[in-house]
Structure of ABC transporter ATP-binding protein:
Amino acid sequence: MSSAVLDPARVGQGSGDATGPLAVRTEGLTKRFRSGQVAVDDLALRVPRGAVYGFLGPNGSGKTTTIRMLLGLVRPTAGAAWLLDSPMPEAALAVLPRVGALVEGPAFQPYLSGRDNLARLEAADATADPRTADRRAGEALERVGLTAAADKRYRQYSLGMKQRLGLAAALLRPRDLLVLDEPTNGLDPQGTREVRHLVRELADAGTTVLVSSHLLAEIEQVCTHVGIMRSGRMVLQGDRSVLVARGVSRVRVTTTAGLTGAAARVLAGLGLDEVGTDGLRVDALLGDVAPERVSAASVAAGVDLVGFEVRHPSLEEIFVELTGEGFDVAR
Ligand SMILES: Nc1ncnc2c1ncn2[C@@H]1O[C@H](COP(=O)(O)OP(=O)(O)OP(=O)(O)O)[C@@H](O)[C@H]1O
């Protein structure tokens, strides 16, 4: 399917969608590498304008390949992508100046300083205004905390400094959309906090931000929306409440000796699943049963309530459950 076949106007691109105007949209986006590896499989990405979209998934789940396709750096095997309503890669020249990107391996010169590298990028960009280049480079370096190291050669930069320079390059001018692939890679905790702060600031100023990470905790606090990838497929996408809604709460009743059987029968009688007993504790999945029904039914059945606890899983637990993330990478 090519973008010519799939007209954005016909599929409601940019309006009409339940989620409102979109800054990034893909339909059936697929990448099969020559090795036969399907890195991205039939992806329908939906990044609303103004969102901070956390693009999450374990190592190897297809985030970088997706981002490279969005930016026209990798050609999709099938499907289509739009950035700011413009088809990619066809409209790359027109739309990419409005898009700041931080992707792996930016083309920086090792023997030039950070500042001179930015100047070189500016000089290569025909759409940039040379009169304001120095000021904008200085501001971008300051925003990413690189002013002190601005005149050091790139090859002497630490990984974190390189990452900051990549961010500075994305911020050389105001952007409507920022696409950041693992921006906290190589940063220390303070640097990670600064990136979060920067993302929030940019979003407050109206920029849409698509930010990938394999660590939910790193970007959870700034995301308005999430998309979770597993083995090249999107397993969950929407505003951040979809994550919470996805979590399954558990209830735990603690009672006295001799009453655990009765407690288990109460829980099962209410239709709760996975009822299990451990010492004086009886656990079950709460499902959509109200907790107060469980406590009331227990008391009515003569079960002493020594303890009563409802546990909501953390976002991290939900993320791990969805992605099946373990120590090994996906593939
Ligand atoms: N050029 C390539 N040729 C063959 N396979 C590739 C190529 N690039 C990526 N892959 C494979 O595609 C899959 C997805 O990789 P991708 O880099 O998109 O994942 P990711 O989610 O960005 O992971 P990470 O968090 O580790 O960067 C992986 O299995 C990877 O080995």
